Amino acid sequence: MLNGLVCPLDRANVDTDAIIPKQFLKSIKRSGFGPNLFDEWRYLDHGEPGMDPASRQPNPDFVLNFPRYKGASVLLARDNFGCGSSREHAPWALEDYGFRAIIAPSYADIFYNNCFKNGILPIVLEAATVGRLFAECDASEGYRLLVDLDKQTVTTPGGEVLAFEVDGGRKHRLLNGLDDIGLTLLQSDKIKAYEERRKTEAPWLFA
Amino acid sequence: MSGLTLFQKLWDAHVVHVESDGTTLLYIDRHLVHEVTSPQAFEGLKLAHRLPRRVDAAVAVPDHNVPTTDRSQGITDPVSRLQVETLDANCATFGIREFKMGDIRQGIVHVIGPEEGLTLPGMTVVCGDSHTSTHGAFGALAFGIGTSEVEHVLATQCLWQKPSKTLLIKVEGVLGRGVTAKDIALAVIGKIGTAGGTGYAMEFGGAAIRGLSMEGRMTLCNMAIEAGARAGMVAVDDTTIDYVKGRPFAPTGAAWDQAVAWWKTLHSDADAAFDSVVELDAAAIEPQVTWGTSPEMVTTVHGRVPDPAAAPSEVKRHDWTRALEYMGLSAATPIEQISIDKVFIGSCTNSRIEDLREAAAVVRGRKKADSVKLAMVVPGSGLVKQQAEAEGLDRIFLDAGFEWREPGCSMCLAMNADRLEPGERCASTSNRNFEGRQGQGGRTHLVSPAMAAAAGIAGHFVDVRTF
User: Fold this and answer.
1) What beta strand segments (E) does B94-191 contain?
2) Which of B95, B197, B213, B282 lies 20 to 30 A from A120 at CA?
3) Range B3-28 burial, b when 16+ CB lie within 10 A, else e
4) Angle between helices B39-47 and B78-94 (to 10 degrees)
């Protein structure tokens, strides 16, 4: 359950290059990408790895820099959010910044999948509903949404309850913080049996 | 009962286990690894004291960070160097085959897989890279994954997946002279949009696709992800089998015969039902040029930059306005009047031998326009480079004032030193024209290799068919 301040990013087709530009992908770590989330939109100067965020020039026209959205944990977005590169650095950066949920009419497949691996809930709502949330968010400073993964609902400050769909297995793993690999390894016998069968059917795959 | 699609056949052959809700544990035959999306996966394995399940199924290559200029001094950028060294160290630790920077076989991961016969028909192929869809050209099920899944595949040789819906892109007829697979790809994206294939596995079929070489099919499947489809694929035929035969890691002898017998079944049955079908007439496709910051913002070489006032929706009007501002273009400008500063011929989309031949055929005997600051040709692999040099293509480019570089991803995403400066405009054979993709403030126009070469000679976009 999350009662989060909402930040609206009013653009369609936001790609993962925009979410975290390529120069930051040179890191061999999984953390620390938050300060460079949306780097090229968020700062006026050019960012490189290792720069002190305090020394940067924030772009006052970029929504993430508006004082009213400081501390946001719900990102409101448009169609096809997270398209392009498969870089998991994109959800790492969103998570590191503090986002826990995204609401959009649609997502690119790989990004959508990557979110669940990193404690971010990508919620799909109808485009018209998302459009209404943009308007409400714009009209009311301090606009928050209550996200309940267990009940699969988003509740607006006005008390409107919006239901969303989420895959049962993903929901279970997200709620319980389960280790995917550990769960898969419980199927080791079946993996082994499959491999034995394929070694006969398609031996060149094991050469 | 209707027949099976190619996707269903590939899927069925790789099912290890199915949960009650349809979530499937799918077996992965080939895992391609590069330096950018793997370090955190290897670290995860180490922290959990896990070992790769099948090191023989994985192959690694550094491609994103490698320099395309003189390599005798190694990589000068210390951050890039550390990432490549980390890949080297991880491959050594775990015993994974790697084509290192000094190896003639080093190159872009999506070029070397097919080139070495590491990508084979019927395989499931994954890589921590969205352009893994490329390998679907072989009648394989190939898709990009994130780093958590890279770790998952290393540890288990499997992935949890749900079956995709199926989309057939049917291109009948014959392509016009000077029109290439890249133009088909951009025309498809222009028609269905960058999210048109989301949730689908996309199969390309029809006479025009059967007429394409393997290089062309790879270009097409490579761009499936730009239409939103994680996987693109083309049925196996003689073109596929002829390409694979004799490759270093392709099967031989009795195993070859056994493999070919199965591969020949890897096509959608005549009565297979797709969830969706989109048809295009090859003869109607003209050379394509993108004008905006998304691959769907595309028109023909004889088109004009569109007017945002004519956009079909409020959201699109907003996007087009922003794109024109970023691109420094005004509505109604004819595409042929757009001047360029740089040319980039390369990337996992268009850096194979056929692409270089097409570009060289345009460049031969001509000179780069003085107004073009840099025209660079980056072969997809050391072996492509060697082949091109054996055919004299390097001389054709060099004589025209183009640069001839070492293999890698280069200015497709500008993680190495090759990049656009703010405001520079580039005719590029790569796959993404996103804001900042080729360098902060850089302006990318996606085109075919022949169109990029022609723009480099003319200094602006021109119709390569009449050039």
Assistant:
1) 97-98, 124-127, 141-144, 158-161, 165-172
2) B197
3) ebbbbbbbbebbebbeeeeebbbbbb
4) 50
Say if CB B425 and CB B339 are below 8 A apart.
yes
Q: Cβ B48–A10 below 8 Å, yes or no?
A: no
B337, B338, B343, B348 alpha-carbon torsion, rounded to 10°: -110
Three-state DSSP at B260 gives helix
Any A CB within 8 A of B326 CB = no
Testing the interface with A: which of B245, B315, B322, B349 to mutate, by most A Cβ within 10 A?
Answer: B315
- What lies within 8 Å, CB to CB, of B87 at 6+ separation is B33, B34, B35, B38, B39, B60, B62, B98
Yes or no, beta carbons of A17 and B162 under 8 Å apart: no
Q: Which of B168, B240, B180, B238 is nearest to B205 (CA)?
A: B168
Of B297, B310, B402, the closest CA to residue B356 belongs to B402
Sole residue written with tokens 């980039």: B344
**C-alpha count within 13 angstroms, C-beta hemisphere, residue B428:** 33
Which letter does DSSP use for residue A66 in this model?
S
DSSP B304-358: BPPPGGG-SSHHHHHHHHHHHHHHT--TT-BGGG-B-SEEEE-TTTS-SHHHHHH
Q: Give the C-alpha separation, B263 to A199, whole Å.
A: 16
Q: Are B184 and B208 in contact (CB under 8 A)?
A: yes
Q: How far apart are CA A192 and CA A199, in angstroms?
A: 11
State pLDDT tens for residues A164-202. Answer: 999 998 999 899 888 899 999 999 999 999 999 999 999
Backbone angles phi, psi at B231, to 5 degrees: -125, 135
Assigned token pair, A26:
């040179």
Whether residue B149 contacts residue A115, with contact meaning beta carbons closer than 8 Å, is answered with no
| CA-based radius of gyration for chain B | 21
Q: Predicted confidence band at B249 (pLDDT cuts at 50, 70, 90)?
A: very high
Strands B158-161 and B200-205: unpaired
Q: pTM for the full model? A: 0.97
Q: B406 in the Ramachandran plot: left (φ > 0), alpha (ψ -120 to 50) or beta? A: beta
State the average pLDDT over residues A18-28: 96
Give how far B191 is from chain A: nearest CA, Å.
Answer: 16
B/e letters for A105-126, b = 16+ CB within 10 Å, e = fewer, are bbbbbbbbbbbbbbebbbbbbe
Residue B273 to residue B5: CA distance in whole angstroms: 7
Distance between CA A125 and CA A104 in Å, rounded? 6
Residues of A in contact with B21 (CB under 8 A): 167-169
- Residues from chain B that touch A185, judged by Cβ atoms under 8 A, are 155-156
Query: Distance from CA of residue B324 to its chain's centroid?
Result: 26
Tokens 């326009």 correspond to: B369
Instruction: Kindly tell me if the per-residue pLDDT of B106 is higher than 80.
Output: yes
Q: Do A204 and B258 touch (CB under 8 A)?
A: yes
- Contacts A87 to B, Cβ<8 Å: 36-37, 146
Strands, sheet with A2-8, edge to edge from the N-terminal-most edge strand: A121-124, A101-104, A74-76, A2-8, A144-148, A153-155, A161-163
Residue A47 DSSP one-character state: P
CA dist., res. B191 & res. B171, Å (int): 13
Nearest CA in chain A to B126: A86
Residue A114 has φ and ψ, to the nearest 5°, of -60, -35
Residue B1, pLDDT > 70, answer: no
